[in-house]
């Protein structure tokens, strides 16, 4: 199949999922065209089936806001015609489903029928999309998609609750490539550089937005390090980062916390991690937790949104109510304080992650593409 993938090219989960999906489809022989405003961070153009087309938005001083949706829908029309693309798969409803719908309409006028699959990722529904300023356009473009998927049952339920959706939403969970080589053959895990032998290493990875409840990460770690020797790795950039640095200083734990900024070396950090913290206000899925589990790292998370569909409490880690830092710290210590318990949870985390292996999930996407093409 010839498929156009539209996504946000940044470090966010939706862009990562879209990129990994495209890479795997290309390995399976499909021709994949990424159409976005810059090259997705995890996209290596190493496969002849992978193409990248940049959406350029000319700056015009008259405009207060440059019309990205217009440029994207025009680019989609041009690329569909030029490369004979058969299907659009847009990730994140805003504004991609809307731009995709416009492209479909323009192409229809030229006698070209192309189906559109829209994948809902989370904040496009929960935080941003349900805002009254966007809601009519988001509702419309979801209803006008040929097939709609969501990354968890929780997000599907939420979408029906918040919008007047007339379409079936198919749940296709996010995935991970379990068997990919995670470390360089010549560069083994560098745990010794980060912490001493008796210290436990705890990691948080996110875009440091308020929804991630960054102060809870620091507070949970603070409680842990009072009981056992430990270090905290904070990976990512975002508006809450400075606040977290200040909180670490106030708590007198700055020497035990390392702020990495954004990193493309997530696997290198996860290889020496003992426990992952994700206390978010909500997560439609929690891809970061799955990435940790795939490296055999148990997860302490909140129980909101789709997190219980990924992190199985008492097995791959524990779930607590949002904001309950005492419970999170207690659960973390119950895993970390005992070597045997820790290795049991590590093994379990990996076993749960295997359920989300790309090889299990990819046929679900291929099946919906075939369905969309058949019904076009
Ligand atoms: O919240 C983020 O970290 C970014 C956000 C995005 O839009 O890329 O992530 C959302 O999509 C991910 C991939 O499907 C999910 O794993 C995240 O849980 C989801 N974030 C939220 O729902 C807050």
From TrEMBL:
Quick one: a GO biological-process term for this protein?
bacillithiol biosynthetic process
Glycosyltransferase subfamily 4-like N-terminal domain span: 11-179
The lineage, from the top, is:
Bacteria, Pseudomonadati, Bacteroidota, Flavobacteriia, Flavobacteriales
Quote the protein name from its UniProt record: N-acetyl-alpha-D-glucosaminyl L-malate synthase BshA
Molecular function (GO) terms for this protein are: glycosyltransferase activity
Ranges for domain Glycosyl transferase family come to 196-349
Task: Report the SUPFAM superfamilies cross-referenced here.
Answer: UDP-Glycosyltransferase/glycogen phosphorylase
Natural source organism: Flavobacterium microcysteis
One Pfam family name is Glycos_transf_1
Under the heading InterPro entries, the entry gives:
Glyco_trans_1, Glyco_trans_4-like_N, Thiol_BshA
